[in-house]
Amino acid sequence: MKILRPLTWKERLLCLVFPARCLGCGRAVLPQRLFCEDCVPKLPKEPFFQQIPLEEGSLTVGAPLPYQEGFRQTLHRLKFQEEWGLSKPLALVMAETAGALPGEFTLVTWVPMSDKKLRMRGYNQSALLGRAVAKELGLPCGEVLEQVRETETQHLLGRSQRADNVRGAYQAKPRVGGERVLLVDDIVTTGATMGSCAQALYQAGACWVAGLCAARSPYRPPEQEAEHTESFW
Ligand SMILES: [Zn+2]
């Protein structure tokens, strides 16, 4: 996995004010490093790939990092603590995994957020990651998916409930017709949300869809998930 990043002089100067931090533990690191020396051995040898079943065929989703320990906290900082700048180093690591997905892409998009949730949180972390990944890959990007009904929080639901919760919750714009789409989200667990978004993209005429997330989380039943969430905070 990529552990160094190229930096412009402007970015190096910026690091004097906002030091670069390890994506695995948050410790300050040299500006060009993505991970500290202690976290490099914890990185997976290969990205995680999983197949999400669709009504017809399946969706391949790749993710470079495990959603555990310090990596989990990094994703929380991006998602809940407005550390938007993390999207850029995460995108570097994600772009490398995108290179291992089958096929060439023509468009990058992301899992959208409902208007209600967007008003509450103020930003969509998946959009930040999607735009940064598109920039890294030199591909066009845009919000082509729309959440057409409210859904429950996925990680507090059981496996089959998650699929029911997001089924038909998304719609894609006709402009995806003929595109080979890279669909970005922050975390993949059962893949129900990614699957529902991919289904919407295919229904709108996309000719190929693959998924890319920053981290992969193991599935835990809702009661364990609630305990785990509480212990983190
Ligand atoms: Zn570290």
- What percent of residues are in strands? 15-25%
Which stretches are poorly predicted, pLDDT < 50 over at least 5 residues? none
The radius of gyration is 17 Å
The strand count comes to 8
- Please identify the structural class as seen in this structure: alpha/beta
The helix fraction, in percent, is 25-40%
The name of the CATH topology of the largest domain is Rossmann fold
- Cα end-to-end separation: 29 Å
Please, how many domains? Answer: 2
CATH uppermost class of the largest domain: Alpha Beta
Mean pLDDT: 90
The distinct bound ligands, ions and cofactors come out as: zinc ion
Provide key terms for this protein.
single chain, 233 residues, alpha/beta, Rossmann fold, 6-stranded mixed beta sheet, two-stranded antiparallel sheet, 8 helices, 8 strands, 36% helix, 18% strand, globular, binds zinc ion
Summarize the structure.
This protein has 2 domains: 1-42, no CATH class; 44-232, Rossmann fold, CATH 3.40.50. Helix content is 36%, strand content 18%.
Structure overview:
Helix 7 links the parallel strand 7 and strand 8. The longest helix has 13 residues. The two termini are 29 Å apart. The chain contains eight helices and eight strands, in the order αβββααβααβαββαβα. It is globular. The mean pLDDT is 90. Helices cover 36% and strands 18% of the residues. The relative contact order is 0.16. It has two domains: 42 residues, no CATH class; 189 residues, Rossmann fold. The strands form two sheets. Strands 1, 2, 3, 4, 7 and 8 form a six-stranded mixed β-sheet that branches. The protein has a two-stranded antiparallel ribbon with strand order 5-6. With 233 residues, the protein is α/β, with parallel strands linked by helices. Zinc ion binds next to loops.
